[in-house]
């Protein structure tokens, strides 16, 4: 803010995408930092949420096998003071560099996983 000469409107964070435990613990840490940094002047949070982790197929997410992890992250976002955060879920879905790539083989699983996780975030917020 000192560099640009005005307050920023948003803070942006990316959820971890390596392993489920890290997705939860790193989110909790990041949210503590942002809550502290924005305590005097609230900002809107833009949270980039991975749709799955590196070794978890989208079909597992679509089947609900990781619902608890998503519920914990969503609850932590809400409880950190960002109940109206913008959730960018499963970004770059056509990029081969993310584990949630939606291609001809995974398109249906991506759609089902996206809908399932979006419903979790909506329910929690």
Description:
The protein is of the alpha/beta class and 125 residues long. It contains four helices and three strands, in the order βαβααβα. The protein has helices at 20-37, 58-62, 67-79, 107-124; strands spanning 10-14, 44-49, 86-89. It has a three-stranded parallel beta sheet, covered by helices on one side. The longest helix has 18 residues, at 20-37. The radius of gyration is 15 Å and the shape is globular. The model has no long low-confidence stretch (mean pLDDT 94).
From the structure above, extract its key features.
single chain, 125 residues, alpha/beta, three-stranded parallel β-sheet, globular
Rg value: 15 Å
| Major sheet strand order | 1-2-3
Distance between the termini: 28 Å
The average pLDDT is 94
The stretches of 5 or more residues where confidence is low (pLDDT under 50) are none
Main beta-sheet strand count, sense and barrel state = 3 strands, parallel
Quantity of strands, as a count: 3
Which outline best applies?
A: globular
What is the count of DSSP helices, taking H or I runs of 4+ residues?
Answer: 4
Which band does the percent of strand residues land in? 5-15%
Order of helices and strands: EHEHHEH
The chain-level structural class is: alpha/beta
The percent of residues in helical segments reads: 40-55%
């Amino acid at each position: 803010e000192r560099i640009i000469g005005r307050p920023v409107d948003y803070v942006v964070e990316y959820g971890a995408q390596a392993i489920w435990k890290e997705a939860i613990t790193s989110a909790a840490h990041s949210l503590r930092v942002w809550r502290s940094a924005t305590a005097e002047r609230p900002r809107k949070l833009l949270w980039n949420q991975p749709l799955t982790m590196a070794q978890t197929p989208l079909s597992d997410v679509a089947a609900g096998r990781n619902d608890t992890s998503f519920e914990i992250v969503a609850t932590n976002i809400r409880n950190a003071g960002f109940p109206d955060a913008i959730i960018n879920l499963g970004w770059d879905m056509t990029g081969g560099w993310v584990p949630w790539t939606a291609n001809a083989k995974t398109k249906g699983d991506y759609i089902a996983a996206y809908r399932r996780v979006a419903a979790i975030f909506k329910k929690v917020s």
